[in-house]
């Protein structure tokens, strides 16, 4: 991480408990309170750099107040940012880095540390470091943006958030080899015979990395949701492909939703969400909010988002009791590409208190209905027929035929459930049009299983219903 050294004097600040003292040899004549911490300092170094502190000090002098305490508890960045700003006023050595420059820049703005007060003041120093160093580096831009959360309002007003987002979005939408790595004029990084990177013919000792469109996913997954959303919007504006955006959303969601893709059973999801061995697991309310925001960010386009991700989000949304609109959106997204799903995807555990079935058959019914509606809208509701009544296209190649086979397999899986009522079973079976099943063997197998399980009480009724 890049840094810039400021100041030339040895550190004269000492902390005792919640009290800071400047051990310069002169008695303190002013105290600055920042929350629970107090800084016992001297007026002249402060008023010569800070317009805000100069104004406070002058007002106290003009009013003849004996009190030498100034409360700056609302300073952005808190006591740590003020400590660094005070060291700057005294000319004490410290390092400005991507981790502290945002708080320091906001604190400098709050303290009015402008060029009018002193040439080369803290606002100018932090701005120069941000522009010339931090925003020219991928890693430093991400780190700086991450620190904006605590001072978000001021960081947005000072355009720090926008500049960091623009820097990251520009680099993520470009060839990663062009940023921070030696690059040949035509092609990728030059390498020595031993495989290390070359810069002007000199070995850097670094190893080349593989270029991949997902190289940036892990770095940005550390961002809070509000900042991450800004970044995704900036990337979409720059025309990055929807597939890459979805890949990043998938990676981000998996980092924060412990229950995502836990398919085995309801207890697996519950155990994953309640794990205490992981660090900083969001609350279930936070997870629900995150999932609903991920749903809003996902593109509504067939085939861009994998069925595996969509079903994982749907299972987690059901468990977290997400909003009806979120659940409906996920079901519609799945319905748009149901022909790409697997049987395992459809086996969604039923966690409803009012329904006793093992799997959520109602959910699958709604997904099938969405698929059939989409299929009809796109003109794929039935195969084309020639003049002789023959089917022009091979039914086996049609998405609806693939869905029919999938649903027949699903019906066979849920048929052994004694609590599955006949109307639900029949409704799902009948939802698929007859032409979509070139062969009815799968459906007959499911019906046979269902009748055997229900034989004791439902044979007369079930037999006539399937005839």
Walkthrough of the structure:
The chain has 467 residues and is an alpha/beta fold. It has 21 helices and nine strands. The strands form three sheets. A five-stranded mixed β-sheet has the order 2-3-5-4-6, covered by helices on one side. Strands 1-7 form a two-stranded antiparallel sheet. Strands 8-9 form a two-stranded antiparallel ribbon. Strand 8 and strand 9 form a beta hairpin. The longest helix has 17 residues. About 13% of the residues have low confidence. It comes from Urochloa decumbens. InterPro entries: BTB/POZ_dom, NPH3/RPT2-like, NPH3_dom, SKP1/BTB/POZ_sf.
Compute the CA-based radius of gyration: 32 Å
Oligomer: single chain
- Enumerate the strands of the largest sheet in spatial order, edge to edge or round the barrel: 2-3-5-4-6
In percent, how helical is the residue content? 40-55%
Number of helices: 21
Listing every helix as H and every strand as E from the N terminus to the C terminus, the arrangement reads EEEEEHHEHEHHHHHEEHHHHHHHHHHHHH
What portion of residues belong to β-strands? Answer: 5-15%
Low-confidence stretches: 176-210, 264-279, 385-392
Content-based structural category: alpha/beta
- Major sheet details: 5 strands, mixed
User: N-to-C terminal Cα separation, in Å?
Assistant: 73 Å
How many strands in all? 9
Output mean pLDDT.
84
**Backbone shape:** elongated
